[in-house]
Amino acid sequence: MIDLSFWKGKKVFLTGHTGFKGSWLCLWLSTMGVEVTGYSLEPSSNPNLYELCQIDQLIHRSIIADVKDGDSLSKAIMDFQPEIVIHMAAQPLVRESYKDPVETYATNVMGTVNLLEAVRRCSSVSVVVNVTTDKCYENKEWVWGYRENEPLGGYDPYSSSKACSELVTSAYRSSFLNKNSIHAVSVATARAGNVIGGGDWAKDRLVPDSIQALLSNQPIKIRNPHSIRPWQHVLEPLGGYLLLAQNLFQYGEKYASAYNFGPHDEDAKPVEWIVKKICDKWGRGATYEIDSSPQPHEAHYLKLDCSKAISELNWFPRWNLETAIDKIIEFTLAYQSKEDLREICFKQILEYQNT
User: Fold this and answer.
1) What is the secondary structure of 213-281 as a DSSP string?
2) What is d(CA 175, CA 54) in angstroms, rounded to the nearest whole number?
3) pTM check: above 0.90
4) CA 178 to chain CA centroid, nearest Å
5) How far from 53 is each of 198, 241, 345, CA to CA, in Å?
6) Residues whose CB is less than 8 angstroms from the CB of residue 95 and which lie 6 or more positions away in sequence, other chains included
7) Among residues 55, 71, 117, 130, which one has the fewest Cβ atoms lying within 10 Å of its Cβ?
8) What is the H or E stretch that residue 88 is in?
9) What is the pLDDT of residues 50-102, one digit of tens each?
């Protein structure tokens, strides 16, 4: 379990704090009394969860800058002197990586290098969690889940860049940050599935596109109705990252490796199943249609084996996919009604912790 007393007063440096997952993590950390410095670009969408929940008021400091700028990143970490670093800044979209592969590699690979270089120079850091993706595996369209010791790969630039980030992290752990180094740091990577939740307005993602269509009273358009993904509510992997960081801090090298965080097998569902469920729960005559135009390659089938996180970290999925969709609809209705979204998020975090 996440130990609230452990987290109270800890200093956490979080990259990507203005993004969807980063905003939810800032909210969660704030409930535990963590001192957070965030480092990220401006929010990439309008609206966005970061501004709607006024997260800059909840954290110690928000630095708007780019992980590609190694000097700026190093200065930010040195000035703050964090104990724990969670690296979530990324170019996170498969389709965008086809449009701009150079930017994708520069951010996702060299951004990781810059972060780990900064950590090498900052003696206060004890723990690094680098958040990558389930798509870092060499996808063979297997019906069983990938384990952490499977080969890395990546058909598209995004997936490939995240596999590269994994390799960079492993090399730095072996070469510079192990227990025999001048500055020993416990470094792990976290590979999560397709994350969904209230407050995501990213382009070219299934649930955000669906919500935008519902709010505009338009049919939802889906590209790959039969593609299967390990869908999970955003709080599931975030809870995994927190548990992983906690164990790294308390027990060190034993947990310095890669971990999968995904749903139970029964929640790896096709795209069309998700959209039907969203339409049913939304009501109001919501419909969808299939876009048959040519699309860039995306994996058809992808599942994770999370046995390692379950057995070593005592982490397990708490909310099934139906509950996750319920929470998204709850958030969206609150957004539509102009309710206090920060309080809605705090409520959902508390409900998740008490599940």
Assistant:
1) HHHTT-PEEES-TT-EEEEEETHHHHHHHHHHHHHHHHHGGGG-SEEEE---GGGEEEHHHHHHHHHHH
2) 40
3) yes
4) 25
5) 12, 22, 9
6) 204, 296
7) 71
8) none
9) 999 999 999 999 999 999 999 999 999 999 999 999 999 999 888 899 999 99
